Amino acid sequence: MLAALTLTDTEARTREDIFTAPSLWTPQRRVFGGQVAAQAVLAAMRTVDADRFIHSMHGYFLRPGDDEQPITFSVDRIHDGRSFSTRRTQAYQNGQPILSMIASFQDVDPGLEHQTTMPAGIPDPDELPSAREILGPIDHPVAQYWAHSRPFDLRHVEDPIYFAPGPEAVAHQAVWFRTTAPLPDDENLHRAALAYASDYTILEPILRRHGATWATPGLKMASLDHAMWWHRFARVDDWLLYVQESPTAQGGRGLSQGRIFTRDGMLVASVAQEGMVRIPEA
């Protein structure tokens, strides 16, 4: 995890700051979208005053990334106002953009305060099986990667849809997650790690609604765009609840929305993602 979220300064151009970061191996040999989004967020953070914190990002996944190559990030310092700063980050491999993101930062200001309530009756994460427990015995490279190599412990509240559809065709689910190892006391690192985790499972409500699984023959899925809003700070090495739903799917695309809560019910972030979801004869 920390290896992926380590950036190296390389050079400066007229209006852009340049960074590089490694890619983590995946069985599909494509860079995980959450990884490149988190790195893009970190790159933008490096160019903003320390008293301003990211509160939103909007990104487009343009091309699949190659996990055998590092990624170059260019950050354009678009604007610095009295309270807000805006940055545009482009991620490149082989001179081609693979992600384009714009992010906004704000200093700490007083203001109105309210939030939606975390769903009631959610089982404690300690009562639920981990992906390692479910997938560890499965002799398949993807199952072994999800069980042992991902930097997050994921625990589905409903039955996971790795191999079998859920008992009901519903377009919602909830997942507990936290990093598998403690993170340093760097608030920006935790915010970037939250962006990393936000790409996990977010499209699963679309599959769940249609009785599909990750093992459905011919399934093709890819993240198209990703939006995220950070509301309040929380450590990502403590358990967080990711409540997800899909309001619509059509034309080979599906939209999912998510809210992330701390264990005691504080709303930390909101997420929206549209993805390509194609199932043969669907």
UniProtKB/TrEMBL annotation:
Q: Which domain of life is it from?
A: Bacteria
- Keyword set includes NAD: no
Ordered alphabetically, the record's keywords are: Hydrolase
User: Which residues belong to the signal peptide in this entry?
Assistant: none
Q: Which Gene3D superfamilies match?
A: Acyl-CoA thioesterase, double hotdog domain (2.40.160.210)
Domain Acyl-CoA thioesterase 2 C-terminal: start-end pairs: 169-276
Q: Which residues form the Acyl-CoA thioesterase-like N-terminal HotDog domain?
A: 22-106
Hey, which family's this protein in?
Belongs to the C/M/P thioester hydrolase family.
Indicate what this protein is called per its UniProt record: Acyl-CoA thioesterase II
Taxonomic lineage of the native organism: Bacteria, Bacillati, Actinomycetota, Actinomycetes, Micrococcales
